[in-house]
Amino acid sequence: QVSQWTRLCEISIPLAVEGFLTAAPEHCQAVPADILQLERKLGEPVRVHNDDKIRRQKLQQQKAGAKAAGPGLSKEVTEEGKTAEVDNHPLPSLELSVAFSKLHVQETSNALREAPVIRRTKTSDLPPLDHIFAEGLYFTLADIVLLPCIHQFLVHSKKQGKNLGNLPLISSWYRRVQEVPGIKKAADKCSMQLLQLPELMPAPEEQLQDFSSVPDELEEEHEDSHFIGGPRPTMTKLMESGIEAKFSPHPCPNWTIDWSNLPSAVSPGEGKGF
């Protein structure tokens, strides 16, 4: 598990939930640090390959919503921007529309041409994208891996009468995953009775820090100190089992790649970290 994200989803959170479920009641009062770490990550801005385009659409949607909230709402804005009855029926988030259009193999609606002020807006001034699913806007294997673990954690917490008010983003993610086609049917076949959680307001960052007893920096150092991976340990295990790899010279040894000029996500030394 080179990626810290993979490690969190596939190892740390399952182990944390298992420990939470098996601990004595007096020892499971605090939310596991790995669960809180997931809550924090769900609050970070999303980055996708068409990030700029979607963020401009979000800015345009926000401006349309602001106009609708003010006096003198025109019929044109109501029809094209779908901004009627803002107070009672708020616009679905652009991220949610993009996410579920991907699930239904459809392109996102882009009927409205971007206004000049939207096109001229600097990328740094565009609104960030919010998480819809674990990795960002799109439903991935990470959501499937996390769902049973988070479900067991929530069920146990509810039985213990714990307040989940400090985990609003995880609660929102849990509700949203249930909307994915096939999830409820799969859960029924696995005898998972999915909970219907109320919508919660996001908790301040300081509150999340108070609930966590392990700072991010110390946690990463702790993880790295126990991480064993890479080619050397693997080759050693193979050799101990009597298996020896034979290497041939690279056909083009003079070829080099300047990883510093490429996104960190494609670098073998970086992976998808935090």
UniProtKB/TrEMBL annotation:
Residues 60-75 have a biased composition (Low complexity). The keyword Transferase applies. GO terms for molecular function: transferase activity. SUPFAM superfamilies: GST C-terminal domain-like. The keyword Transferase applies. Residues 76-85 have a biased composition (Basic and acidic residues). It comes from the Eukaryota. Keywords: Transferase. PANTHER family: GLUTATHIONE S-TRANSFERASE C-TERMINAL DOMAIN-CONTAINING PROTEIN (PTHR13369:SF0), PTHR13369. This is Glutathione S-transferase C-terminal domain-containing protein.
